[in-house]
Amino acid sequence: MQNYRMFTDREKVLEQYQSANNLNARIALHEKFGTRKGVFHAWLFDFVKAPEDASVLELGVGSAKLWQVNRERIPQNWSITLSDMSEGMLGDARTNVADIPARFSFQVVDAQQIPFEDSSFDLVMANHMLYHVPDTDKAISEIRRVLKPGGRFYAGTGGLTHMKELEDFVAEHMATKLFGVFTKMSSTVEHFALENGQEKLSKHFKNVKLHLPPPSHLHVTEAEPFMAYILSMARWSELIEGVSKKQVDEVVAEARKIAEKSLPIRITTSAGLFEAW
Q1: C-alpha–C-alpha distance, residues 9 and 3, integer Å
Q2: Do residues 204 and 277 make contact, with C-beta atoms less than 8 angstroms apart?
């Protein structure tokens, strides 16, 4: 249970996402080596249903990638609140949307205690973030509360096989040399995944629909972005505590050599979008 607590602990999540650097390293691997045509954030936006004058809340805005990708598709009369639990991440988001002609406001928000009145929003979005929330049920209840009657909630998340080959690589070539690292590889996504999201959302919403993109994977042809993804992960930064820098550097250097020899590396991707109303 050590890993589960780590990835849903407020302080640890804030540490991992104090800026967009770690998130950007992970996004970069998908953008550079993904086999899917188009961008996931653009595909996600295709399903959004909201009035032309909608009040919108995004929880866990991250680097605001969703809005950067879809900048030309944002209705002029939307009033959009971008929120994150991390002030640093929210600052990055503010910078990244500064040149987008839309009505953005920014607020630090914990999804378990959303500081808005009942029925405040026509649309709430939470893209790949609910699995970080300690009490997912409470967060979904809060989302339901702040949605107007007829409002919709969109939650992007991954499946249990998402990035499996990358995690297997770490388990085989790194964890065995750093005792205790990655003891439970998929604990983050398991908290709110494609496989259990329907059940969790159905407790609070009458209608829940899962949208899945066409099958795709990553075809990784460079070792450095592959390693950058690994080193950006919360599991790595947290579970090497107490291990000497020399030992960590040696393990990383050896893993980098193995990755280079293993190219190209095929990595399974499994992600989708829940729509609830």
Answers
A1: 10
A2: no
Cβ within 8 Å of residue 69, ≥6 positions away: 39, 41, 42, 45
Angle at 218 between CA 234 and CA 211, to 5 degrees: 85
- Cα separation, 134 vs 131, whole angstroms: 8
Question: Around Cβ 28, how many Cβ atoms within 10 Å?
Answer: 14
Give the tokens for residue 151.
Answer: 């409002």
Tally of residues, the chain:
277
Cβ partners under 8 Å of residue 147, min gap 6: 119, 121, 122, 124, 153
Task: Answer yes or no: are the C-beta atoms of 192 and 136 closer than 8 Å.
Answer: yes
- Helix-then-strand count for the chain, H and E: 13, 9
Residues β-bridged to residue 183: none
Q: In 3D, which of 93, 91, 258 has the Cα closest to residue 170?
A: 258
**Percent helix, strand, coil in the chain (nearest 5)?**
45, 20, 35
**Amino acid in the structure at residue 4:** Y
What does the mean pLDDT of the chain come to?
Answer: 88
Strand partners, 106: 82
Which tens digits make up the pLDDT trace of 227-255?
Answer: 999 988 866 765 576 778 898 899 999 99
Take residue 139 and report the two structure tokens written for it.
């967060």
pTM across the whole model: 0.85
d(CA 241, CA 47) in angstroms, rounded, equals 42
Which stretches does DSSP call E strand in 109-169? 121-127, 147-158
- Read off the pLDDT of residues 79-95 as tens digits, 9 standing for 90 and up: 999 999 999 989 999 99
d(CA 23, CA 16): 9
